[in-house]
Task: structure prediction
Amino acid sequence: MTDTIAAAPAVPTPVPTPVPPAGSEAGTEQDARWLTAAVDLATRNVAEGGGPFGAVVVVDGRVVGTGQNRVTRDLDPTAHAEVQAIRDACRALGTFSLAGATMYTSCEPCPLCLAATLWARVDRVVFAADRHDAARAGFDDSAFYALFAQDRATWSMPVVAHRVDGADAPMRAWLDLTERVRY
Ligand SMILES: [Zn+2]
Result:
């Protein structure tokens, strides 16, 4: 048996983890038109004292809701443009489901807004600027995405699970309700 010392394999130059692709599909010219409307809402909102975010909800080529960031004006940290647009669209359509709709937003939805669009059952989301543009402007979208990717035990905001007696009572009450409205 012969000992051989293999030449150390060349250490590949570390490749930085690529930023995931911004979207899962390419936008269309029609998308560009609605995005421009969302961007205009966002820019106008800055002039009116709001945050630099705007969104429009479109169903069958028609705007059914619009939103601008109203966090500071309305003293509402959840008044993000997409949330506002969802509320506006749902009020206009008299529904809590936006199935069949597309959300056009001036900037990549933050985790709150992405979850809100999922809850609203929106079909598709199209955005213009991204989380990195938002970060450069001082917003935490990118930081929150990074946080969600981390173990919760490392968060500066403790999230405490404490299963008190009756913790499952609301869910049992819901399941016992024969005429519950599913959403
Ligand atoms: Zn948001």
About this structure: Residues 80, 82, 109-110, 112-113 surround zinc ion (CB under 6 Å). The helical segments are 29-47, 71-74, 81-93, 111-119, 131-136, 141-148, 169-176. Residues 29-154 form a domain with the Cytidine Deaminase; domain 2 fold (CATH 3.40.140.10).
